[in-house]
Amino acid sequence: MNCDRIARLYRWIEYAAFGKSLARRRAAFLSDVSDARNVLALGDGDGRALVKLLHCARHASVTYVDASAKMLELARARVLSHPADRNRVEFRRADARLMQWDERKEEGTYDCIVTHFFLDCFDSCDLPPLVDRIARAAAPEARWIVSEFRPANYFARMLIPVMYAFFGKATGLRTRRLVDHHPELLRNGFRLEKAQHAWGGMLVSELWSRSRGFPN
Question: What is the DSSP letter of 3?
Fold first, then answer.
């Protein structure tokens, strides 16, 4: 998936479809990670959520990864408009499935993972190794914020395939159905601490955590 073609329109596409509901899902548990020091944010797009994260987690350094150069450009511009935050973010253009961690600096060091409307871009073949890869980068007591769509009602089951079809045409996304991320996070030692739902359960925000006893 590469959002270059729709990067500058994405915000307005989102607002047209969902209003501010997705933004509220992204912000749901920021206060729970205000003490984060080393954050990995994956596929978070144009930087609106990043600015809120930086404002909430005042002492955090963020590694911000996206496959779209245009999205990274927009995110970088938003951060640059906040001078106090501009040195706190490392922007990386990469495919998260292939990204290699610097084991000396990164593997097992991120105390907060952020994936907003990201895991739903991967099919049942790609999602398990992707979650494994992310989990290896997470610290022993890491927290993981997830925002996702869920096929929780009739409306969601009708709308989600339409969304996949649109993003398939616009971005090259090959995934065509939601894959449940819960088993993969559980398998990597994470436990669901909190959840909030909107749109009858179609939109969900989750806060996961992992105990130090789980082998990394």
Answer: -
Q: Residue 105 — very low, low, confident or very high, per pLDDT cuts 50/70/90?
A: low
> Who wins on pLDDT, 146 or 211?
146
* 44: three-class secondary structure by DSSP: coil
Given a contact cutoff of 8 angstroms between Cβ atoms, the answer to whether 112 and 39 are in contact is yes
Domain boundaries 4-210, corresponding CATH code = 3.40.50.150
175 DSSP 8-state letter: -
Q: What are the residues facing 146 on neighbouring strands?
A: 115, 206
Ordered strands of the 38-42 beta sheet: 89-93, 61-66, 38-42, 110-116, 138-149, 203-210, 190-198
User: What pLDDT does 199 receive?
Assistant: 96
Sign of CA dihedral 210, 146, 193, 58: positive
Query: One-letter amino acid identity for 23?
Result: A
How many CA atoms does the CB half-sphere of 170 hold within 13 Å? 16
pLDDT at 121 over 70: yes
Q: Which residues of 117-150 are buried (b: 16+ CB within 10 A; e: fewer)?
A: bbbbbbeeebbbebbeebbebbbeebbbbbbbbb
Tokens of 69: 């150069």
